[in-house]
Structure formats: structure tokens, C-alpha cells
Amino acid sequence: MRKNKSMIFWFCLPAVLSLLIMFVYPVCRTVLMSFFQVESVTSGVGEWRFNGLANYIKIFGSQTFRISMKNMLLIWLVGGVITLALAMLMAVVITSGIRGKKFFRAAIYMPNIISAVALATMWIQYIFNYDYGLLNSVVRLLGGDKVKWLGSDMKFWAMTAAFIFGSVGYYMLIYISGIEGIPQDLYEAATIDGAGQIKKFTRITMPLLTGVIRTSITFWSINTTSFFLWTKMFSPIDTEEYTIVPVVYLYDIVFGGKGVATRDAGAGAAVGVVLTLIIIAVYLIVNRLIKKSDLEY
Amino acid sequence: MNNINWKKELRLLPCYLIVCVWVVFTAIMIFWILAASLSTSREIFSGEVHKFATGFHWENYATAWRVQNVSLFFRNSLLYSVLSCVGVLAISAPAAYVLARWEFTGGRALRIGLVIAMSVPIIMIIMPIYSLAVRWGIKGWVLLVVLYILMRVPYTTIYLLDFFATLSRTYEEAAYIDGCSASKTFLKIMLPLVQPAIITVTIFNFMSVWNEFFMALVFTTNEDMTPVGVGLLNIINSMKYTGNYGGMFAAVIIVFLPTFLLYIFMSEKIIAGVTGGGVKG
Amino acid sequence: MKVKKLFSLLLVSALSLSLMTGCGNKDSGASSDAGQTGDDAGQTSDDAGQTGDDAGQDDNSVPAGTEAEQTGDNAGQAAGNQYEGVELTMWSMWTSEEAQALVIKEAAAAFEEQTGAKINIEWKGREINNILTAALEAGEKFDIFEDDYRRIAQNYNKFTYDLTDMAKAIDYDSYSYPCLNNQVIEWAGNLNSIVEQPQVGGVFYDKDAFTAAGVTEEPGTWAEFMDACQKIKDSGVGPLALDSAYSDFTFYQHLVHQLGEEKLTELAANGGWSDSNAVKAAQAVIDLVNAGYLVDGAPDEFPSSQNKVGFGQAAMVVCANYVTAEVNKATGTEVNWGLFNYPAVDEGTDNAAAYAGANSLAITSYSENAQAAFDFITLLTTGEFDQKMADTAAQIPADSRNTAPASLSGTVETLLAADKPASWCSAINADENLKTSFKSIFNELYEGKYASGEDFCKALDNLY
């Protein structure tokens, strides 16, 4: 077929421009900004003062930022292991040949389509409520003492649990489509050989899903670094130590949270760069550790 | 084979148990909110939403819709979602088409750029865009529509690209012989052929934009441009002053219901969209 | 080759974009001319405003203070359509259908009719404090905005209009609250905001619960307070409700009484809590917690605990006055509210201190119609409309000649008598890197996490 140069040009131009405006320019500017002292996010380059690594030193010297990083790490690691494990469990269960497969799949994915603001409200106002909440009703039914789910000990885990509940469905779908891509005759052969469910899972499903698992880990990492809304919902009046994450820290220092008098867009940019580096590092490490399965099916 | 294989079902019992617990939990949660949305604040805080001692308070919905402005937030979200879904197709579909069809200088770079852009965290983008918007005086809903369009371009282009690549070239050759111009071929022949992919990706884009929160929070400067997510947060924040919790839960239900209904009818398509995008990564 | 072409095209488009911005700047330059004409108009109206003010001043001698605005209105009418063609834009912190917003709309309509001006109100909602700084820096076109008076005085100071002269002309001091105005002047260097909704803090309590428990007098000292708590507890009601969102505020009251805000600021900045009377303050609270004087579940998630006052399960809550309206509405009851200052503590440095604050209105420094804007603010915050605001939104009137709604009786007097208001936790909020830690440690104090005042102070000192 003939190559139509002008058509290629005009067809690509909008996409190229949007890439430049929305991604290339902002990323470059943010990286640059992280090496300058910039008070207001709106100030022009002329008002920037170069100060080397001072922004990075500042944020890593900040108690609040360190706590926020620790929280994010916990969400990523603990939340990630639980979410991905639960998602895998659900995926295996749903593809195990149960009836109502489509219904269950849709029902478990459903929290993802609800506005997270609504979802978080349900958890805070009902599930975790001290007096009449669902969890405490169950606890009392079992004869235990009521628990302060949103007290300082539990708040972080309460938030993480709610977040996990909202996330499982998505990763489950990814795993289901991975499992469904595995040819049935492999399982049938295994059954003939006398392999049990567990053996089938560890010998067939897992090895063939490494590529999908790798993808899901990368997705999870990107999701946790942009964790924001749940913190906002679980600390509605003001930012709290139990729930703070880096993006909230950034939002507070760049746009000036409640009662924050000094703003620092340069430090905010440094937070952004740090998070991006983390994503890249995770991506590289995961790619090195989990080799894509060479198995063809 | 209509007979139920009881032995098999029994073996699957643990499986049923696991999913049922999960689904029942979800259902209880939603029913509680539904009940709360029909109760007074007093009933909610005394934990008696299931009794409906004072009847069903449908007026909560009226209050939420009118006084709390949910109708306005709804209109805005709809506007954002629809406009950006259309806009992103206008940018992505042509690019995906030529990228899938021809090898050309810069094409590979563009493709890689798009893939990388998909995983750039939003916080790396938001500050420069914010200052640009302020300095150029771009504001109002136009700004958010433009940002949503630009934000969805990488994903949409990559997604459509794979579908264009699977189409046979005979269509274009036939069209060329018939004297159809290249761009006309694209519009009249190729686009309709990838219609299923367009529907899937549009559903996915629609939901992403509908549920987007961070950019909306940063760039919303006015009630007239507040989408439902941020609007709901505002409503919850203003509870401090209004104390109408029944109305707040009614607002939650109003925001939840349309997506839920849409989901019931289109869950297959939506799930296909999510998995399609997910596995590609 | 193609790449080059593409690049040159991109360059061209980039250039044209930058040209466009250049043009944009020029445009704004042109419009500033127009602005100057507008300024002149403003000055003329200035005079007109003053005539109106004179009328207002005369009126002060009339005993019925609330009628003042009525005459003021007449004066406005007498001046004719003095602001014909003037367009004011207001950024409001409310959403368009809230009680406060309805009053503002009504006042705006009245102002438009009286003066011929046009008022556009943009409803920004509570998140306004996240957008104001950027908007002011960018010089967005608006004349009036609403926010917390402290933020206006400290954060937006550069962009606000000095209202001193205009306020003097209408004798603002005669009906406003001196403690709030002085505070603004101390922070900002001049009067840059007008109070719209004043707030006072302290211990809000259910009078009926006190009577039922046999507490006849409002406790004035910590010992009396603990005594009252015991009586209330014996009567089967939880003495003190507390939501974790207000843990910091509640203990801050205690600390301010014990140490004074000056010392507190110093401690918060440099540490040294263990060697101060903060140990004593923390110990007092630990004793309170151990005695079981917090209601079951406290510190709870907002608003669960404070609502218990409405359900008759708790008797007191430490907060600002809006708690009364919140609890009444959320629980559908009319609690018989009373207010007393946080009790005096032993060896306290500043036992009289009480929180006071306000949502205030300010005018942008670049407003072209400052006097018109000011006149509208005055209309809104005095007389009829202020009374309506106080009644419908259950708030303290900004015009001290008006009367507070029943649930807030006594608050106007408290505010008028106050000397220097204590801030809303400003000492512990000053350092953004420490404030979240302070908050959580304060909260843990009420959760009973610390065995003694020493432990608590050690935890604070470990932050430095």
C-alpha cells in the first residue's frame, strides 16, 4: 500500500502534541523544579533559585515525609501481598467451574466502579463505626469487646483494609483472563496423571501466569504511589500521621493544606521525582526477578 | 446434562463459601447505605437504620439532588466523561491507525513514548500543568476536559493500535482501487471495523474520567465545574455545618446508582475493557 | 528528513504558542487602562459611600441599635444608583444552597437594588482555602472572598485591601469584636478583613444533664471540673465527649491555660517539653482519662462522639460554637446548650485564655471597586442580614448589637469581653513537618497510651 506522508503527519500530530504538552513538558519541568527553590507552584522560571539537592535533603529530613513513605511502603508491601493473593484466590475459585461464574465475577469487581469517595464513606460510617458498625456487631456477637477500628492503633490498617477491598476485583479480572488463556488440555492431562488441585495450581497455573503477575505487581506499585483519596477520606478534617502518604504530603506543601502557612513547590517536585524513581526501580527489580515465562501455550 | 452433578458441587463447596462471604459482605454494606439514605440523621447515629421507625425519608433524595447540588455535579461529570471520550478518540484513533499501518521515522519513538506515558505518575504532571493553566488563564470546565482528553490519549492509542494491526489490508487496497482517499478510507471503512474495540476502550475511558479524583480536586475552582467525586467530598465536608447525614448518604446512593445500573447491563463489556487493557499493560 | 520537518513544525507551533502568551500579556496591559477608569469611578463612589456612612453614624445615637442598618439602607437609596455599572465578584466558601449562601444571595439582591451594582457570586465550597493563594497570586478577577480570618491575615496578607480607613468611616469598632480586630491587626499589620461569622471555643455542655447530675455551677477550676465529671458519671452519663479530630484542640486549651501561648510556641519550635509544666498538664488529662471521664468510645471518629451529647449519653464537649448546631441537626434534638471557658488549671499562666476566631470577608488589593465591595460587606455583616445569618445558620452574629440564637446564648458577651483570643492550635501547627506528629501524640494522650505526664513529654521531645 502507498505511504501517504502528509496523512501520517496529520494523523500523528495531535497525539504527538498531547504527549508533549501533557507528559514530556510537565515531567521535564517537574524534574528541573526539584533542584530549585520554588515557593509557589505558579511562579515563573525567572523566580526560581537553584539550590542543588536542598529540596531532597529537606524532604528526607522531614519527619512527616518519612512517616508518609513508611506508610506507603506498608501499603505497597502488606496491602500488595494481601490484595494480589486474594485476587489470585478469587480468580482460581471463579475459574474452578462454579455455577454463577459471571455473577460472582461481576459482583466482586463491582467496588471498582463505585466512586471511591462513596466506598470510603461506607467503610468509615458503617463498617468501622464504634457503636453500631458491622465489625463491632460481629465482635460483640462473638462475645468480644468493641474495638476502636479508627483509633490510632488501627486506623492505618483499617484504611488499608478498605483499600484492599476496593482493589481486589481489578487484579482478579487480570488473573482470570490469564487463567482462561491457559489451555484446558493441560489441566486434563494433569488430572489423568493424578494431580490434585493444589499441584495443578503450583505446577501449571502459577508458572504460566508469571507474566500476568509481573504486570499486576507493576500496576499495584503505580497505584500505591498515587494513593491519595483514601487518606483524604480517612482524615477528613486535617492530615493525620496514621494515614498520611507522600502524595498527600505533596498536596499539603504545594497547595497549602489547612493551617500550612509556608508552601514549597520545589520540595513538592522532589517528592514527585522520588516517587517516580521508586516506580522505575520496582519495575526494573520485578522484571529481573520474575522472568517472563518462555512457555508457549 | 441438565442434572446437577452433586459430587462436583460438593467438592466446590469451599469455593462457593469464599465468594459468597465476599459478595454478602458487599451486599450488606450497600444495603446499609441504602437504608441510611432513607433515615434521619438521628436514626443513623443511634444505629437503627434498618428499623425505619419514622418511615422512609424520601425527602433526603430531594434535598441531596437540589440543596446539595448533586444534579449539578452530575451534569458536570457527564459532560467531562462524554466530551473527553469523544475528544480522545479524535486524537487517538487516527494516530493508532497510522502507527499500526505504516513504518515511518519517529513512529517507533512515538509508540514507546505512549507506553511510557501510561505509567507516568499524575503528580509529576500536575504542578507544571497547574502553573500553565494559571498563567494562561485557562479555567472552567474546558480545562478539565482538555486535561482528561490528553491524559487518556496514551492508553487509548495503544489499545486501538493493536486492533488496527489485526485488520486485513485488503479493505484498504479495495478502497484504494475504488478511488477512495486515504482519510476517507480511514473514516468510512477502517473505523467501523474496529467498532468493538472503540466501544470497549470508551467504556473504560468513561469510567476512568467519571471516577477521576486528584486532578478534579486540584483544578476545580468552582461549583459550576465540580464533578461528582469532588462534589461528594464537598458534601461530606460541609456536613460539619449542615448535619444532614441522611442527605449525605442519599447523595452517595445517587452517585453510586447510575454507574451501578450501567454496570449491571454492561458488566461483560466493562470487564472485557478492563482485562483487555490490563493484560496488555 | 521527515523528522526534521516534524521538528520544525513543532518549533513553529511552540513559537506561536509563546507568541500567544505574549499577546495575552499585552491584552492584560490594555485592560489595565480600563481598570484605571474603573478606579476613578471607584473614587467617586467613595464619596458617595461616605455620605452614607455619615447617616449611619448619626444613627448610632439612636438607642435601637439594630435599626442602624435600616437607616443606612435609606442613605444608600438617597444616594440613588450610586454603583450603577459597577460589577463585583465574590468568591464564597459556601455551596450555593446552604443556609449561609441563601442569606448572602438575599443580601446581594438587596444591595443590587439599592445601589445598582451587580454582584456575581461564585460558590467555591470548603476547598476554597486550597485555591485562594494561587488565585490571588495570579490576580484572578474577584473583589471579595471569604475564609478563615487567620489565613486571610497571615497567608493572603499581600493581596488584601487595607480596610482601616473604610472601617473607621463607618465606626466599625463600635459594633464589632475588639479581640478579633486586634488580632487581625497584630498578624497582618492592618485591618484586612471584616468578621462574618465569629466563633468562640470552650466547653459546651448540656444544661439538663448538669442539672440531672446535680451540678449546679459551671466549673471554674480543674478540681471543680473533675468533681463535676464524677457527679455526671454517677448519674449514668458519660462526662466528656471527644472526637479524635478535636483531640489536639482540646489538649491545646489545657496547654494554653497551663503555659500561655507564647511559651507553648517556643516549646513547639524547640522542644524541652519535659522540663516544663506540660508534664503537669498531661498528667491532669491522664488522670481524667483513667477516672473514666471520657464517654465510651472516645476519642472516636468525628462526629460519633460529639453526637452523644445529642443522644443524652454525654454531657460536655470541647469545641468551637458550631458544635451546637452540628449536634442539634445530626441528632434531631434541641440540646439545652451552655458554655463555659475551659477550666482554670493549677499554676496556670493564662487561665483566662479562650479560643476565638472567625470566618471573615476580605477585599482583593487589586479590586477596582473596593468601596462598593466594602459597602456590600457592611450590608451583609450588620443589621438585618447578619441577624438572619445568625438565626438560620445558628451562628454568632457579627454585629454585636444583634442577638445570638438560643443555642448560643451568652456567646456575644463572652466574645465582647475576651481580651486576646487563643488561636486554633497555631503553636503546634506552625511546623508542617511536626504538626501531624503532634496531633497523633495528643490523640494518644486521650487514648490512654501514656502512663504519666513524663512519658508523654518524652514522646514529644523525641520529635526533635
Folded structure, characterized:
- The complex is a heterotrimer of chains A (297), B (281) and C (464).
- Chain A has 297 residues and is mainly alpha-helical.
- Chain A folds into two domains: 33 residues, no CATH class; 235 residues, Orthogonal Bundle (MetI-like fold), CATH 1.10.3720.
- Chain A is built from 13 helices and two strands, in the order H-E-E-H-H-H-H-H-H-H-H-H-H-H-H.
- In chain A, helix 1 crosses helix 13 and helix 3 packs antiparallel against helix 10.
- The radius of gyration of chain A is 24 Å and the shape is globular.
- Chain A starts with a helix and ends in an 8-residue tail after the last helix.
- The model of chain A has no long low-confidence stretch (mean pLDDT 87).
- By secondary structure, chain B is mainly α.
- Chain B has a domain of 193 residues: MetI-like fold, CATH 1.10.3720.10.
- In chain B, helix 2 packs antiparallel against helix 14.
- Chain B is globular, with a radius of gyration of 24 Å.
- With 464 residues, chain C is an alpha/beta fold.
- Chain C has two domains: 249 residues, Periplasmic binding protein-like II (D-Maltodextrin-Binding Protein, domain 2), CATH 3.40.190; 195 residues, Periplasmic binding protein-like II (D-Maltodextrin-Binding Protein, domain 2, 3-Layer(aba) Sandwich).
- Chain C has 20 helices and eight strands.
- In chain C, helix 1 crosses helix 2, helix 8 packs across helix 9 and helix 12 packs across helix 20.
- Chain C is globular.
- Chains A and B meet through helix 1, helix 3, helix 4, helix 5 and helix 7 of A and helix 2, helix 5, helix 6, helix 7 and helix 8 of B.
